[in-house]
Design brief:
This protein has about 1300 residues and is mainly beta. Among the domains are: about 150 residues, YVTN repeat-like/Quinoprotein amine dehydrogenase (Methylamine Dehydrogenase, Chain H), CATH 2.130.10.10; about 180 residues, 7 Propeller (Methylamine Dehydrogenase, Chain H). It contains 15 helices and 90 strands. A hairpin with a 3-residue loop joins β40 and β41. α11 crosses α14. The longest helix is centred in the last third of the chain and has 17 residues. It is globular and about 115 Å long. The two termini are about 25 Å apart.
Length: about 1300
């Protein structure tokens, strides 16, 4: 299939632009604090790629809820992004610190820059307070930055390396109140490995930092007779004291701890608690503090019933939350996701001493990279893989009901055993004395908000497979284990369909009329009273109330003619414009103004006090509401000299009685701005020429980025399917000279005004509906499509039940829609993608597109997905063990659905469903007691039906599927068959397996899998398959083998042995195969049909560990490696002819030379910063040019766009060079050095750095624009046009 693809020859001067389509959604670490404003509960997250984001916990209770209906609604909570900072570095650690006397938190960042940064986010603006340098760049084990610990009183912080080095910085204030930082104080200790550091709370005494560390022996100790390194290693908890008087750091105290200890959490001290640290390890939680006497304080943790007794359970995170009145508790999470509440019991005689601890099961949650508890009783879980979640505590005092283990019971068992600490505190004894439980749905927590995460993304496929949409969809494989999913991403905002009703015909327009009655004006927001639907020769009037009902002749509307415009006037009357005249309606009575002579009105526009109509022939007549008489007064007609195709009179600003301008579009492909001032009525202020006839226009005031007055924006929809957006001077009426155009679809564009999030926006309707609105922070205009069927006409809609909606027509139906903007990326820096998710059973490994059905059946495109999980049982084994993945605790016999519900139960069904959905949690299956266990299946999905599952085949026990490919064997008449590569009994460390197979399936018309045969293979695991010249090409270990299909198994045709390590990726085109090696980059192989041999043509000299590849043309390929680089490699000219057959037919002296195989040339090289797991060459817009779309393990979607003109190359090269010098360096990392992490950046422009131009101050923008001989508007327009061409 891939060889039949026609590809253009890539230019030797290939230049690419890297753009981010969707930011990385994984979260490395997170913190709770008050960053931008006092009293605000905010979450700081560090994302891969060096991004810092601040989210505020928003609630529907924060707004004005004066209406009774609002009070009855359930409170909604969501996370709103307040700000985002791109640091262009690898963030290793983050910490918050609050200086003495401050009410907000500062952020400390440890990165790969060799600096530590102290930043202030006041008001959503970044201010770099300090950025001292201390070491080399890069993530080195001896360079501090991996761990950060703060003094709870904000006086100092410690930044540590993995090995040896620790630095302490003292924070203070100068005489002017500004923050100061002192030179670092060293706390180094040779041969020491640090596992974690925290700041110990000891009141206002000298700051103390606790370090979990161990010191490995030197060579002399090993020579003196030490049997192994483990014998001389003892993990310790060490206290380092900062003496503020002497300005010196010393190692104050140390004590040994459990050998598996890995994380720390400090307890509150001083007047608030006993101080000390909690230590989490395998199977145990321990408390340690200086000066402890008596028994050890350590307790086992409750265990799952199905967990094997010989397998330990590691505590991965600990956190301590302070409650009121000096109360506090701790939360601990295990590697299985179980969250425990750790209760600390104080000595009744001495509140500064801990008497014991108890670990009680709280709930089972996704495995997290942190535990963040807010003062509002919420818990934020930044998931390691899958969606992040915000939970509400419903109960925290669980000690009496939940399975618990106390330190007293643990110590009592220890004393009774008579063993030593080293022999007793192990996994076997922990499993004997720990309480057991079965994971269930959430009991003490409730999910209230989910933040979507695509991490990890393991594969991508792009195409219009839904069958009824214009733009292609992006299909991605996401998640791990029980949180795995197949997602369908569409560029655009999600839409909720609230109502659909049939109409008696095909409408020509739809309008809404505001309710300006006294009762409506008392409300704090505007609502609509009527929906007016216009047909070719009739008008339908619908009244809005609790229901939408049709209104007859009593409405006084003209219903036997189409409506061209209608509006509610300021005095309570309604104006309707129809082809014969203008009708003024008041209290069921109507006044009519008729057109002069035989002329007809062709188009019209109206607002609260003004009406303008265009007659046939180009005459314009203007009406204005007389405030004394309450009637519309017409002005003399003015001939414009050309036929009018569309017009708009604009909206009234607050405090104004009239709109100052009207926009009029003419059939001569021009738009003019006309004055509506009384002394300059309908005089031209400015005009602009267009490339097509205007179909619709809209004048609208939109919020600007600053505190200035709103900007007046003119939006024009053209007949050729494109839109033009430009600014209009609100005083002079002159049109900006830098309009922004964008192609929207194949139909003429209809433009109307709507409202989203209480701000003005524009609805543009073509082949797809689009939303245009400004970003209030950056001022940049955001355009995103709506993921909905094509609409013909639309306008804004508001009612008591629907605050902000859209009423639109599609065909012969009327629809009421709502744009889901809360929590989405619409109108923010991140492009809006909405997704539909289909849950999978195991971790998805690969997917391919397949044509289902036999030769006689109708073909249907389906998606084949192979899934497998290591260290997991198959579905049958889990069911036999009694494992319940839902955690509902119900037997299958209880779910027969035969019970009869009472009336009360029926009324509460909807609430029960919402509550059940909020309590669903992923539960990991039982852990096998021995290595080599796998769970795997093959799934067939239907992309035309929301990727629903057509068939799912579970593989035999301990057999795992890793790759799949759709193959058309010529010997079977070109029938599409599904080939799957599987491995049985495989262990990863060390790499061993029992058998390897290639399984061939037929996919029948209904999507069912039919097994043809299984072929055992030798020489290694099968990790890559590809269709090649009507045969199957397989990568088996170090061997590349070509197969033909037989009746009982596959038949070998030829093979190439001796590839470097293991074949990981595979492509075929023409007579060439492109082989990606697990450690040694790319190999180009040619198949010689005359001799039936595979010949190595060329390889890459750099040892890249390939993760994915995509063919650009016959000689060029793009690859991604596991270090986060993307490279474009090319076969040198004439290299194919010089290829040497290494099989022995050439002379020995030829094949033994090092340079006998030609080397691939590197055209481009670029460091993404995240592991690229999939890439494909595709267009995201129907009919658009192709780009290289890639996905990363952290959920990022990016695009490498090829430049098509030298002008664009020069513009972006100059802009990037300027921004490398002038863009802020938040962590001190140089942008070019970051993008050249492993190899120098080559022929790729950092588009994210170029787009940072829009976030600079106007003075900085002007300075850079002058350096590249352009103005600010031209630079911003160029940036927008590049992104618009991609999406």
């Amino acid at each position: 299939m891939s060889e039949e693809k026609v590809v253009k020859q890539i230019s030797p001067d290939l230049k690419l632009l890297d753009l981010t389509l969707k930011n990385a959604s994984a979260i490395q670490s997170s913190l709770m604090g008050e960053f931008t404003a006092e009293g605000s509960q905010e979450i700081l997250v560090a994302r891969p790629g060096g991004a810092l984001e601040v989210y505020k916990i928003e609630s529907s209770d924060d707004g004005d809820n004066d209406e009774d209906e609002d009070e009855e609604e359930e409170t909604r909570v969501w996370l709103k992004m307040v700000m985002r900072v791109e640091t262009k570095s690898i963030i290793r650690s983050i910490e918050t610190v609050r200086l003495t006397g401050e009410k907000r938190d500062l952020i400390i960042v440890g990165s790969d820059s060799g600096n530590t940064s102290v930043m202030d986010f006041e008001g959503g603006q970044v201010k770099i307070l300090h950025c001292p340098a201390f070491g080399k760049t890069g993530c080195r084990r001896g360079t501090p930055g991996q761990y950060l610990a703060k003094d709870p009183k904000g006086r100092a912080f410690m930044i540590s390396a993995i090995e040896k080095r620790k630095l302490v910085y003292v924070l203070n204030r100068d005489s002017s109140g500004q923050s100061t930082i002192a030179s670092p104080l060293e706390a180094h200790r040779s041969r020491t490995i640090v596992l974690d550091t925290v700041g110990v709370d000891n009141g206002y005494d000298n700051p103390i930092f606790a370090s979990l560390e161990y010191q490995y022996p030197d060579e002399e100790d090993l020579l003196d007779g030490m049997s192994s390194i483990e014998d001389g290693v003892q993990k310790e908890i060490a206290y380092y004291e900062l003496d503020l008087g002497l300005n010196h750091v010393s190692r104050r105290w140390a004590a040994s701890t459990h050998p598996s200890a890995c994380c720390l959490a400090p307890l509150h001290g001083g007047a608030d608690g006993p101080s000390g640290v909690l230590i989490g390890g395998e199977d145990y939680i321990e408390y340690l503090h200086e000066g402890m006497t008596g028994d050890k304080i350590i307790c086992a943790i409750p265990r799952r019933k199905l967990h094997p007794p010989n397998k330990g359970i590691l505590i991965t995170h600990l956190t301590v939350h302070k409650q009121k009145k000096s109360k506090f508790f701790a939360l601990a999470q295990s590697e299985l996701g179980d969250v425990y509440k750790v209760s600390i019991r104080l000595d009744p005689d001495d509140k500064t001493k801990v008497a014991g601890i108890t670990a009680s099961l709280l709930d089972t949650l996704p495995v997290a990279n942190g535990l963040n508890v807010s003062k509002l009783g919420m818990l934020f879980i930044p998931a390691e893989f899958g969606d992040h979640a915000l939970y509400q505590f419903e109960r925290i005092d669980v000690e009496g009901d939940a399975p618990s283990c106390s330190s007293e019971d643990t110590i009592q068992a220890f004393k009774a055993s008579g063993a030593t600490e080293k022999d007793f505190f192990n996994t076997v004894n922990a499993s004997k004395m720990a309480a057991t439980f079965t994971p269930t749905t959430l009991k003490n927590l409730r999910s209230i908000y989910t933040m979507e995460s695509l991490a990890p993304t393991t594969g991508v496929l792009i195409g219009e497979l839904a069958g009824n949409e214009v733009s292609p969809q992006i299909y991605t494989l996401n998640g791990r284990g029980p949180r795995s999913s197949l997602r369908t991403l569409r560029h655009g905002a999600a839409v909720t369909e609230l109502a659909v009703s049939d109409l008696p015909g095909t409408p020509g327009a739809v309008y809404t009329i505001k309710d300006i009655s006294p009762d409506a004006l008392e409300k704090k927001r505007e609502v609509d009273k009527f929906i007016v639907v216009s047909f070719a020769d009739a008008t339908l009037v619908l009244k809005i109330g609790e229901t939408v009902e049709e209104v007859g002749k009593e409405s006084s509307f003209v219903t036997n003619a189409k409506t061209l415009a209608c509006a509610a006037l300021a005095n309570g009357k309604i104006v309707q414009v129809h082809p014969s005249g203008v009708r003024l309606i008041s209290d069921g009575k109507a006044q009519q103004w008729d057109c002069p002579g035989l002329k007809r009105i062709e188009c019209a526009s109206a607002n609260e006090s003004q009406v303008i109509v265009a007659l046939a022939g180009g005459d314009l007549i203007y009406f204005e509401l007389d405030p004394t008489t309450g009637v519309l007064v017409d002005k003399p007609p003015i001939d414009m000299g050309a036929d009018v195709s569309c017009l708009d009179i604009g909206t009234l600003q607050a405090g104004r009685s009239r709109s100052m301008f009207a926009a009029v579009g003419f059939r001569d492909q021009s738009v003019k701005i006309l004055s509506l001032e009384p002394n300059k009525l309908l005089t031209q202020r400015s005009s602009t020429a267009l490339r097509a006839r205007p179909h619709s226009v809209a004048l609208q005031y939109m919020k600007s980025s600053g505190d200035n007055a709103d900007d007046l924006v003119l939006t024009i929809g053209l007949d050729d399917g494109s839109s033009v957006r430009t600014g209009v001077d609100a005083i002079t009426g002159s049109i900006s000279t830098s309009p922004t155009g964008r192609f929207l679809g194949a139909r003429p564009v209809s433009v109307s005004r709507i409202t989203i999030d209480s701000t003005a926006a524009t609805l543009l309707l073509s082949s797809r509906p689009w939303i245009s609105r400004p970003d209030p922070k950056s001022g940049k205009n955001i355009m995103a499509p709506l993921s909905y069927a094509p609409l013909d006409h639309g306008c804004s809609f508001s009612s008591d039940a629907i605050k902000e909606g859209i009423v639109a027509t599609s065909g012969t139906t009327l629809r009421i829609l709502s744009v889901e903007s809360q929590g989405s990326a619409l109108g923010t820096e991140d492009e809006a993608f909405n997704s539909n998710k289909v849950d999978l059973r195991y971790t998805p490994r690969q997917m391919c597109l397949h044509a289902a059905g036999t030769q006689t059946d109708a073909k249907k495109l389906v998606l084949a997905v192979v899934e497998s999980d290591y260290n997991d049982y198959g579905l049958e084994k889990k069911n036999a063990m009694g494992f319940d993945p839902t955690g509902s605790g119900k037997n299958k016999e209880d779910g027969d659905g035969m019970d009869i519900d009472s009336d009360e139960e029926k009324d509460s069904d909807e609430e029960d469903e919402d509550d059940k959905k909020a309590r669903v949690t992923p539960i990991r299956g039982p852990v096998p007691d021995l290595p080599g266990h796998w769970g795997s299946c093959i799934r067939i999905c239907d992309p035309s039906n929301g990727c629903s599952t057509l068939d799912c085949v579970e593989l035999p026990e301990n057999e795992a599927a890793f790759c799949c490919a759709s193959v058309r064997f010529h010997s079977r008449g070109g029938e599409a068959l599904l080939a799957v590569g599987t491995v049985s009994g495989m262990t990863l460390h060390p790499m061993k397996y029992k058998g390897s197979f290639i399984v061939i399936y037929r996919v029948l018309a209904g999507g069912k899998l039919h097994l043809l045969h299984r072929t055992p293979v030798e020489d290694g695991p099968v990790l890559a398959l590809a269709h090649f010249q009507g045969r199957l090409l397989a990568g088996i270990g170090q061997t590349l083998r070509l197969y033909e299909i037989g009746k009982r198994q596959l038949l070998r045709k030829c093979e190439l042995r001796g590839l470097p390590t293991m074949v990981k990726t595979l492509h075929g085109a023409g007579d060439r195969a492109y082989v990606g090696d697990l450690m040694h980059s790319m190999q180009f192989v040619r198949y010689d049909s005359a001799t039936n041999k595979l010949i190595l043509v060329a390889n890459d000299r750099l040892p890249r560990p390939i993760t994915c590849q995509e063919l650009l043309d016959m000689n060029t390929i793009a690859v991604g490696d596991k270090f986060g680089n993307i490279s474009v490699l090319r076969l040198p000219r004439g290299a194919d002819a010089r290829a040497v057959d290494m099989s022995g037919t050439r002379a020995l002296w030829d094949s033994s030379r090092d340079n006998v195989t030609p080397r691939l040339e590197t055209l481009c090289n670029y460091y993404v910063g995240e592991v690229v797991t999939g890439m494909t060459r595709s267009s995201l817009v129907a009919g658009g040019s192709e780009s290289l779309i890639y996905v990363t393990a952290t959920g990022r979607i990016g695009a490498l766009v090829p430049f098509t003109s030298r002008e664009n190359v020069e513009f972006y090269t100059e802009l990037e060079a300027c921004l490398r010098k002038d863009a802020p360096r938040y962590t001190g990392r140089e942008p070019q050095a970051y993008r050249s992490y492993y190899a120098p950046i080559k022929n790729v422009i950092d588009g994210d750095l170029c787009e940072a131009y829009g976030k600079l101050s106007f003075e900085e923008q002007q300075k850079i624009a002058q350096q590249i001989d352009r103005n600010v508007g031209e630079v911003i327009k160029k940036l927008e046009d590049t992104r618009n061409a991609l999406l």
